[in-house]
Target: Tryptophan halogenase
Amino acid sequence: MLENTSLPKKIVIVGGGTAGWMAANLLATRWKNSEIQVVESQDVGIIGVGEGSTPHLKLFFDAIGLQDQQWMAQCNATYKTGIRFEHWSKVAGFESYFHPFAAQTDDVFTLPLFYKNIQARMQGLAVNAHPDHYFLESYLAKHKLGPVPDECFPFGVAYGYHFDSALLGQFLATHAQGLKVKRIIGHVENVLQHENGNIKAVCLTDGCQLDADFFIDCSGFQSLLLQGALQAKFVSYQDNLVNNAAVVMPSNITSPLPVETKSTALTSGWAWQIPLKERFGNGYVYSKEYIDSDQAETELRQHLNLLDSDVEARHLSIKVGRVEQHWYKNCLAVGLSQGFIEPLEATAIALAFNTISQFIQCVEQGKGTSQFQKAFNDDINQRFDGIRDYIVCHYKMNQRLDNDYWLDRAGEQQLSDNLNRILYLWHNSKDFVQDMFQHNVWGAYQPKSWACMLAGYGVFPSINKAHQMNTAAYQHEMTGLDDFIRRCGLNFKIHEQQLK
Ligand SMILES: Cc1cc2nc3c(=O)[nH]c(=O)nc-3n(C[C@H](O)[C@H](O)[C@H](O)COP(=O)(O)OP(=O)(O)OC[C@H]3O[C@@H](n4cnc5c(N)ncnc54)[C@H](O)[C@@H]3O)c2cc1C
Model:
């Protein structure tokens, strides 16, 4: 905690990965009189994965005053309108669906029909309730159009990015140094504490000691300060998110350039494919309880058509869960040091951004003292747990059921109360979205996202052939919607052209 409500004078950030440099940029932009140092170890290095974002990365760049043209080209970045989930369902017609980002302004024209058709489909009518037909972002992804519209287009499209994580780190490090952040190459080997438990200084192997009145722990999975020195408790998510490893390798990029991340279900987990300007980033997130690392690598190579290639694979262990207190004593953990949820919805950077910006807001509002820590930590915990529920729901509702891995996920019984309520409403409510709002159960994702996932996997009762009289009116509305989305699409350029 801070001793009083003023801004910290001296801040040390341990770790120079994406989280460390994001924190440094945000703090240096807001607190121009604070002295900020980032220490990073050459012996440890950064995790070097994490190349897809949500629209929060745009919020981050907005907050530090940079526009797309000022950073994207330097980071091999591309645009992203959402994530396509492939082969998570074997229900005919639902083998693939697209999850667009939330809160698009054109949604007011398209969402009501999606919700209406879901309810009709729930009652057994043969209407089109597949999410791919309802959103401009899905149309952009299908036609490989960039998400920044011509100037005269009246609706904004929220978008995220794909980027080379190493290049983004270098870019942010250079930018932060331009804001007077000091970069120190050194390895922290010891942490000194005051009598009250607050951190006094970190000591480097070269004998240097870095004192500060506030510390930010961005040291990755090790969590040197928060879980190490301060012994903050870790709450594991392993019980219902069983994936604990990943194998990663690049492949050649294709043209036209996609504007979506692809997440494909494999035998014992799922593979991401992220389009960057000069390569695809690929990885397979899997559980070692079901396959070993050699099998996972072979399966990923097969999936990417790289069985005969000598492209190198990297193997990583992952630990899912979060700390109980992200802000504890005079230390805030940001990034992998505060927790991690498998990257199925690419939420880690969003959580890091939320954590730092919310902390800055707290301190600026005079709430930087211990009495406000609980409310802060509860809020961040809710965000983590809400995302966990959404990811668990992907597994619980998978419609593959073709081997033990997928059967075990569908049989998962350890669901949070909130997730149980959402699934109950999906199967029983006469108005799923209205009831979600009324019971305030949607958590970290808006009802649109829940509806996209559940409808996208084809989680519907069978069509009732005795009740098929009224679908002509639904089809007429769908034709109007198709036309509306197609006409909106005329305002967008091919993705590659937009990047130029
Ligand atoms: C398989 C996988 C896929 C992912 N995909 C996504 C994704 O698509 N989207 C997304 O948003 N996120 C994703 N993530 C998460 C994302 O990679 C991280 O959140 C992000 O890179 C931030 O990492 P970090 O900065 O917390 O840690 P790291 O990158 O691990 O950085 C740790 C830093 O701490 C320093 N350090 C460690 N020990 C010491 C020491 N003793 N002394 C000094 N310095 C030290 C290191 O030198 C390094 O600079 C993924 C993660 C994994 C594992």
Q: What stands out?
A: The chain is about 35% helix and 20% strand. The chain has a mean pLDDT of 95.
